[in-house]
């Protein structure tokens, strides 16, 4: 098998995206759309065919040297190994299904070429992150997905709100990117190379403090991209984009790039206990924060956005607990069921005729039973129903956190468990509000095109059966993913079977409790006035206000000071003052030039007298 | 030297001050020009006197130059006075203040 074929995996979407960007609107619509789907599907197929290359140490393949300047060597080099291969397969296959869905979703849009070109470009950039064996190339992909995310959130840019959301996402993630950029520069100055394999291999020679600092910088970068505290405010607003974009970028792939980065550099990150603890704390705090926010949201996609944030928080917790396999496992199952939920949410909004307030919905089960069952599959996974994919993956994370018998991780585990209960609660709140009972408002929906329903089916199966990827040994599984990852998997939690059963029992009980509470409260829901706490959660703990008060307003004040205080008052003031002085002096001197001959002659005579007097004086007083 | 140098200097100083007074006191352009001529002649007289004193011909050569220059100056300035008088109907110096700042 020719290893160079690996380059086709990212280049195929790039080529199709470029073709769509250049000629998309000239091509017949069917051709342009098929091209986009082909870009994603072809690369999924290739990943599948080339899968054997990931065995052992994986395959490294170099296309050419991108940058060469002194010690800086940046080859365009791909690393297809046990970590990147499953991720690449997930990205390509999920994006194929989402492309198919988008064909139906964007049926009535005029500007489809831009949409599909950007979507393909996004797949290319994401695959660059996943496959790159060089941190600078990874950074290129990192910025690429950021740009595509920006452009796609603001796809309907004619509404200012959407364009603003795109800008916000771009700027907030850029804050994280600064940290990542600093980390890259630091790594280069330490090792003289940016190759991921080399950095991971040589990381153990670094002093502990340096490793901690670099790992924390990497965490900062990951926080921005993955919408973790405190850089999370952009994700809920990013829901302004079209639903396929939310499903692909803001649920399945881009937001997990931060987790992937930490997993990719885990040999480096894991050298610092402090950094791992920080990652775990950020993850657990975000999980809890986002789950409480999701409880109060009214827009269906914002519920899912907060739940994505919360689930990515779980993945961070897993990385912090030292278990890459648990993080990757949850990353994969989450990609399946969250993409499913988002696309189902798109269908729901379509059925509800563009309405996205869940308080106004209800009774949609009768309208489309198939959609209900698909949504239920996703909801069961998200809520962690026993034997669904989400159950095993989330439990793996809680187990990894529980296995650390330190006070910090005991607290984080407690937060994780409580969040699991909240997750079940808000998931089923959403389900009951949307599907149960009678319609609360007369909604005139559109019928669903088949291409919007059928891509959900494989995702539902993948989500529900996702547990098979990494079935724990407890019930006869073989921890497939954990063993596949091999040396990259991090440490496996060591707990007795009794404890493991106990944790499962607890998880099941929490799931049941969440569902029952949701059922009691929301089965026959009447919209009423919302209390202060609910409004607090609805506004995401007023995070936007806090950011505005802590950063934006002081920044504006400082900028104002430099503009009005320094530039206007000081610099302009001094210059204007000087000019004024000279102008005034000129005005006064002007009166001397009377234009009269006699005055001038008189002045000349007096001048002569003064000169002569001066010489006289010199002669008389030697 | 028959005439003492001190007399020459005193005479030319008197002549110069008379010319200067004429230039400063009169408002008529022609009278001002006459004053200038008198001042120039005072200077010329000093030059000739100094030439005789030091037995050097330089001073007399300079006076020749001075005369040539004076004749040119008179020709031009009188022409300008005539022009101004035709154009503005006056030759009073204070009526011309076009150079006022």
UniProtKB/TrEMBL annotation, chain A:
Location (main, coarse)? membrane
- One of the protein's GO biological processes: electron transport coupled proton transport
Under InterPro entries, the record lists:
NADHpl_OxRdtase_5_subgr (IPR018393), ND/Mrp_TM (IPR001750), NU5C-like (IPR003945), Proton_antipo_N (IPR001516)
* Any Pfam family hit: Proton_antipo_M
Q: Name one GO molecular function term.
A: NADH dehydrogenase (ubiquinone) activity
The topology of this chain with respect to the membrane is:
Multi-pass membrane protein
Task: Say yes or no: keyword Membrane present.
Answer: yes
Location(s) in or outside the cell:
Endomembrane system; Membrane
Q: Which residues form a coiled coil?
A: none
- Any stretches that span the bilayer, and where are they? 31-54, 86-105, 112-131, 137-157, 178-199, 205-224, 245-269, 275-296, 303-321, 327-349, 370-392, 412-435, 456-481, 501-520, 541-563, 597-617
- Entry annotated with the keyword Transmembrane helix: yes
* Domain NADH-Ubiquinone oxidoreductase (complex I) chain 5 N-terminal per the UniProt entry, residue ranges: 66-116
Q: Which GO terms describe its cellular component?
A: endomembrane system; membrane
Identify the Gene3D superfamilies for this entry: 1.20.5.2700
Put simply, this protein is called NADH dehydrogenase subunit L
The organism is Desulfuromonas soudanensis
Top-level taxonomy: Bacteria, Pseudomonadati, Thermodesulfobacteriota, Desulfuromonadia, Desulfuromonadales
TrEMBL record, chain B:
Question: InterPro entries under this entry?
Answer: NADH_UbQ_OxRdtase_chain4L/K, NUOK/Mnh_C1-like
Which subcellular locations apply to this protein?
Answer: Cell membrane; Membrane
Per its record, the protein catalyses: a quinone + NADH + 5 H(+)(in) = a quinol + NAD(+) + 4 H(+)(out)
**GO biological process: one example:** ATP synthesis coupled electron transport
Q: What is the lineage of its organism?
A: Bacteria, Pseudomonadati, Thermodesulfobacteriota, Desulfuromonadia, Desulfuromonadales
Protein name, per record: NADH-quinone oxidoreductase subunit K
| Pfam families in the cross-refs | Oxidored_q2 (PF00420)
User: Which enzyme type, at the first EC level?
Assistant: translocase
Task: Give the function comment from the record.
Answer: NDH-1 shuttles electrons from NADH, via FMN and iron-sulfur (Fe-S) centers, to quinones in the respiratory chain. The immediate electron acceptor for the enzyme in this species is believed to be ubiquinone. Couples the redox reaction to proton translocation (for every two electrons transferred, four hydrogen ions are translocated across the cytoplasmic membrane), and thus conserves the redox energy in a proton gradient.
Acyltransferase as a keyword? no
Species this protein is from: Desulfuromonas soudanensis
């Amino acid at each position: 098998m020719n290893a160079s074929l690996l380059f086709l995996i990212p280049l195929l979407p790039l080529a199709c995206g470029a073709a769509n960007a250049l000629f998309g609107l000239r091509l017949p619509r069917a051709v342009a759309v098929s091209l986009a789907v082909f870009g994603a599907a072809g690369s999924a197929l290739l990943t599948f065919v080339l899968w054997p290359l990931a065995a052992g140490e994986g395959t490294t393949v170099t296309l050419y040297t991108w940058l060469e300047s002194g010690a800086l060597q940046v080859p365009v080099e791909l690393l297809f190994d046990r970590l990147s291969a499953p991720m690449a397969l997930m990205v390509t296959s999920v994006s194929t299904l989402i492309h198919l869905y988008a064909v139906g979703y964007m049926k009535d849009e005029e500007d489809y070429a831009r949409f599909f070109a950007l979507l393909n470009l996004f797949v290319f950039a994401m695959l660059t992150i996943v496959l790159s064996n060089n941190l600078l190339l990874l950074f290129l992909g990192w910025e690429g997905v950021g740009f595509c995310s920006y452009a796609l959130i603001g796809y309907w840019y004619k509404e200012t709100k959407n364009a603003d959301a795109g800008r916000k996402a771009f700027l907030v993630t850029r804050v994280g990117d600064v940290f990542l950029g600093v980390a890259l520069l630091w790594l280069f100055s330490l090792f003289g190379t940016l190759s991921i394999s080399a950095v991971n291999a040589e990381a153990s020679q670094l002093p502990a403090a340096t490793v901690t600092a670099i790992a924390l910088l990497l965490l900062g970068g990951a926080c921005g991209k993955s919408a973790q505290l405190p850089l999370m405010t952009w994700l809920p607003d990013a829901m302004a984009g079209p639903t396929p974009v939310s499903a692909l970028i803001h649920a399945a792939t881009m937001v997990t790039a931060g987790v992937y980065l930490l997993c990719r550099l885990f040999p480096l990150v894991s050298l610092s206990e402090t950094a791992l603890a920080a990652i775990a704390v950020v993850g657990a705090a975000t999980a809890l924060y986002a789950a409480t926010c999701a409880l109060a949201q009214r827009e269906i996609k914002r519920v899912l956005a907060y739940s994505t944030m919360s689930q990515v928080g779980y993945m961070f917790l897993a990385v912090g607990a030292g278990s890459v396999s648990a993080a990757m496992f949850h990353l994969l199952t989450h990609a399946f069921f969250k993409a499913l939920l988002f696309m189902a949410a798109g269908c729901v909004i379509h059925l509800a005729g563009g309405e996205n307030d869940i308080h106004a919905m209800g009774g949609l089960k009768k309208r489309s039973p198939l959609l209900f069952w698909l949504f239920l599959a996703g909801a069961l996974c998200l809520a962690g129903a026993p034997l669904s994919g989400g159950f095993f993956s989330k439990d793996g994370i809680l187990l990894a956190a529980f296995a650390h018998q330190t006070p910090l991780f005991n607290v984080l585990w407690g937060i994780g468990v409580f969040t699991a209960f909240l997750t079940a609660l808000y998931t089923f709140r959403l389900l009951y509000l949307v599907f149960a009972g009678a319609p609360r408002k007369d909604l005139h929906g559109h019928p669903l095109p088949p291409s919007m329903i059928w891509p959900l089916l494989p995702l539902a199966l993948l989500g529900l059966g996702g547990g098979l990827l990494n079935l724990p040994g407890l019930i006869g599984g073989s921890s497939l993913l954990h063993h596949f990852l091999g040396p990259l998997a991090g440490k496996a939690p060591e707990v007795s079977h009794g404890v493991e059963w106990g944790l499962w029992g607890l998880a099941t009980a929490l799931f049941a409790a969440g569902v029952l509470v949701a059922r009691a409260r929301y089965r026959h829901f009447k919209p009423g006035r919302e209390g202060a706490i609910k409004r607090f959660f609805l506004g995401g703990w007023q995070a936007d206000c806090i950011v505005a008060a802590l950063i934006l307003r002081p920044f504006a004040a400082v900028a104002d000071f430099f503009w009005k205080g320094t530039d206007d008052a000081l610099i302009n003031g001094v210059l204007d003052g000087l000019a004024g002085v000279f102008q005034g002096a000129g005005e006064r001197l002007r009166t001397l030039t009377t234009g009269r001959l006699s005055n001038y002659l008189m002045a000349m005579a007096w001048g002569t007298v003064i000169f002569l007097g001066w010489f006289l004086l010199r002669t008389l007083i030697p | 030297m028959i005439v003492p140098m001190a007399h020459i200097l005193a005479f030319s100083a008197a002549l110069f001050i008379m010319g200067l007074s004429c230039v400063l006191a009169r408002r008529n352009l022609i009278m001002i020009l006459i004053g200038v001529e008198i001042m120039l002649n005072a200077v010329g007289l000093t030059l000739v006197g100094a030439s005789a004193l030091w037995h050097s011909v330089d001073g007399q050569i300079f006076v020749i130059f001075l005369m040539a220059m004076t004749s040119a100056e008179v020709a031009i300035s009188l022409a300008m006075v005539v022009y101004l008088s035709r154009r503005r109907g006056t030759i009073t110096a204070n009526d011309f203040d076009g150079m006022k700042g």
